[in-house]
Design a protein that fits this description.
single chain; 533 residues; alpha+beta; two-stranded parallel sheet; 11% strand; disordered N terminus
Length: 533
C-alpha cells in the first residue's frame, strides 16, 4: 500500500468518528500525523496527490450530505455555456469574457503565462485591467472585467486580435545572480491595446466629468486567476481574526494600504446594498481585496459576469451604457437584431429595442436557483491538497529558514477558522445547511489576507496586492503543466517569484537580502518547503 493510500484510509477512519451536527463539527487529526499534513484541516484536506488533487470535494462536503450538489455544481465550472435558451448551459452573451470557467482556471489551478491574448485558449487566465494613467481609475466605457467576445449580431467591445503582449527582460541590481554563481532570469509583460481595437470610445471619469481618452492615456495590466481550491476555508476565518492581523502587523511597523487601514482600524469594508442590506464585511478575496464573504465574492460574480448568464438575483447583463449606445446605433447590428432576437421587437424602433435589451433589468433568469446553489456548494466545497514531505529533514530546514528570513511575516503559516456560520452579503444563501462548513479547523494557507507591495516594473494597478496563499501550489506543474506564479504569471517558478520580492522599494526587500545570504542548499531547502506545503 502506498503512503498516500495509507493516509487516505486513516483520514476516512478519522472522519467516521466525527460528529456531524450543524454546530458541533470538531474532529481531531489522525494521531499518527502531525497537524501540518492537514493543510485544510481535517474537514478541508484531500489526500489525493495526483493530477486530480485540486478538484476533490472536501471531507466536510461529503459528511454534510452535499456531495451530489457538489458534483452537479462542478458541471457549471467545467462546461461551456451556450447561446441556446432551451438546451443545457444556456444564456451565453450577448457579451462575455469567456465561454466558461475552465479557460481561466486550467484543471482548477492558476492561470498560465501567455504570449498572445486568446480568450478561447485553455489556460489563459488573464483579465485585462485598463485604467486612466492620470487617476489610476478604471476606464468606464468597458466593464471592469473587459469583454473581448460577443454573440451575433453584436461586436466585442475590444478586438482581442489586436491586443499585444510582449515579454521584457529585467535585470535586478545583483545582475540576476547569487554570490555563489547561481543565476536566474526575470521577465515582465508589456501590454498594448491600440485605439482601433476599441469598439467603444475610451471614456473615464475625471473630477466627476466623463472625458474621452486615447490609448496613449491609459495603461493596461494583466491579472491572472489563482487556484479555486480551498477558498471555503479562507471564508471560514473569523472576521475578528483578520482585523487582529491588521492590528498586529501595524504594531510591528508594517506599511498597510491607507485605502484599507487608517493607522488604528480597518476603514474599507465590502458591502452589497443592491441584493443585500449593505452590512459591512471584511474584505478577503481578489488581489485588490475587492470582495468580502465567498458567497458574494469572485466566483458568485464570475458565474454571472464572465459569461453574462442571468439568474434570479441578477436579471440584467454585465454591460456598460456606453456600449449599449454604440451597439444600438450600429447599422450592422440593427440589420440582424430582430433575426436573432425576434422576441425583443417591442417598439419597432430597432435602435430603441437594442438599447432596451442591453440595459434591461428584468431579463428572464437563465441559471436556475438550484443550479446556482449547486455551483456555490462546489465552489465552497473544494478541498485543499495535503502537504507533502512534512516529516523530511529538508522540509523542516526549509520551514525554519522561511520563518527566519521573514517570509512568514506576510505568508502567515496557519489560521484557525471560527464557527463558520454562513454569511452571504447578497442574502441569497441564509442557512448553515446551504453550504459546506469548516468550523474550528487549523488550516495552513500561508497568507496574512492583507495587501502588500512588491514595487515591480509594470506592477499590478495601485501596487497593492493581497498575499497569495501558497498551499497546494507545489502540485501545479503536475496538475496544470505549468508553475507560473504572481499576479501576471511573470514568475515561471518559485525562485523567480522569490526574487521578484527584492525590488528596491518592495515591502519584502529585507527578506530577499536575507535570502541572498543563504547557501544554495539553504535556498533550495526553502524552495522545497514552498513546493511541499
Amino acid at each position: 500500500m502506498t503512503y498516500f493510500n495509507r493516509i487516505t484510509l486513516l483520514s476516512i477512519a478519522t472522519l467516521a468518528l466525527v460528529g456531524c451536527s450543524d454546530n458541533n463539527i470538531t474532529p481531531e487529526p489522525e494521531p499518527e500525523l502531525s497537524e501540518e499534513w492537514y493543510a485544510g484541516g481535517v474537514l478541508g484536506t484531500t489526500f489525493t496527490p495526483d493530477a486530480f488533487a485540486y478538484e476533490q470535494p472536501s471531507p466536510a462536503t461529503v459528511m454534510q450530505g452535499l456531495e451530489q450538489s457538489f458534483k452537479d455544481g462542478e458541471y457549471f465550472f467545467e462546461r461551456d455555456f451556450t447561446e441556446s435558451q432551451s438546451g443545457p448551459f444556456p444564456g451565453l452573451g450577448p457579451l462575455m469574457v469567456r465561454r466558461g470557467c475552465i479557460y481561466c482556471h486550467p484543471n482548477y489551478g492558476h492561470g498560465q503565462r501567455q504570449t498572445t491574448y486568446n480568450s478561447s485558449k485553455i489556460g489563459n487566465g488573464y483579465l485585462l485591467v485598463i485604467y486612466d494613467r492620470s487617476t489610476n481609475s478604471y476606464i468606464t466605457s468597458v466593464t471592469g472585467m473587459p469583454q473581448t467576445i460577443a454573440v451575433d449580431p453584436f461586436k466585442a467591445p475590444i478586438d482581442e486580435k489586436k491586443i499585444g503582449i510582449q515579454w521584457l527582460s529585467y535585470t535586478d541590481e545583483w545582475g540576476n545572480k547569487f554570490a555563489d554563481g547561481e543565476s536566474y532570469s526575470l521577465i515582465y509583460p508589456e501590454v498594448t491595446i491600440p485605439d482601433d481595437a476599441y469598439y467603444v470610445p475610451i471614456e473615464a471619469k475625471r473630477n466627476g466629468e466623463t472625458v474621452t481618452l486615447t490609448a496613449a492615456d491609459v495603461d493596461v495590466r494583466l491579472e491572472s486567476t489563482i487556484g479555486v481550491y480551498g477558498v471555503g476555508l479562507l471564508d471560514a476565518i473569523d472576521e475578528k481574526d483578520i482585523k487582529d492581523q491588521y492590528a498586529a502587523e501595524a504594531k510591528k511597523g508594517a506599511l498597510l494600504n491607507p485605502a484599507m487601514w487608517n493607522g488604528n482600524e480597518i476603514t474599507s469594508f465590502y458591502a452589497n446594498s443592491l441584493q443585500g442590506d449593505g452590512s459591512p464585511r471584511v474584505r478577503r478575496f481578489t488581489y485588490a481585496l475587492s470582495r468580502g464573504p465567498l458567497l458574494d465574492a469572485a466566483g458568485a460574480n464570475a458565474i454571472w459576469n464572465i459569461t453574462n448568464v442571468t439568474r434570479s438575483d441578477r436579471r440584467y447583463h454585465y454591460m456598460t451604457a456606453t456600449y449599449a449606445k454604440v451597439a444600438s446605433k450600429d447599422p450592422e447590428v440593427q440589420k440582424d437584431f430582430y433575426t436573432y432576437f425576434p422576441q425583443r421587437k417591442l417598439t419597432g424602433n430597432v435602435e430603441q429595442d437594442i438599447y432596451d435589451y442591453l440595459m434591461a433589468k428584468d431579463l428572464t433568469p437563465e441559471m436556475s436557483d438550484k443550479d446556482y446553489r449547486d455551483f456555490m456548494v462546489w465552489h465552497r466545497g473544494l478541498a485543499v491538497p495535503a502537504a507533502r514531505n512534512v516529516d523530511s529533514d529538508k522540509f523542516k530546514q526549509g520551514k525554519q529558514l522561511f520563518t527566519q528570513i521573514g517570509c512568514a511575516s506576510c505568508h502567515r503559516p496557519s489560521w484557525t477558522t471560527g464557527d463558520d456560520h454562513i454569511v452571504d452579503p447578497a442574502k441569497f444563501f441564509t442557512l448553515d445547511t446551504d453550504m459546506p462548513r469548516y468550523p474550528y479547523q487549523k488550516i495552513w494557507p500561508y497568507t496574512d489576507m492583507i495587501q502588500h507591495r512588491l514595487m515591480m516594473p509594470n506592477d499590478i494597478r495601485t501596487g497593492w496586492c493581497r498575499t497569495t496563499p501558497l498551499w497546494g501550489r507545489g502540485l501545479s506543474m503536475l496538475i496544470t503543466g505549468a508553475d507560473d506564479r504572481l499576479h501576471d504569471c511573470r514568475a515561471r517558478g518559485v525562485l523567480e517569484a522569490i526574487m521578484w520580492h527584492g525590488c528596491p522599494q518592495s515591502d519584502a526587500r529585507w527578506t530577499i537580502e536575507a535570502f541572498r545570504k543563504l547557501t544554495k542548499d539553504e535556498r533550495d531547502a526553502i524552495i522545497f518547503f514552498i513546493e511541499s506545503i
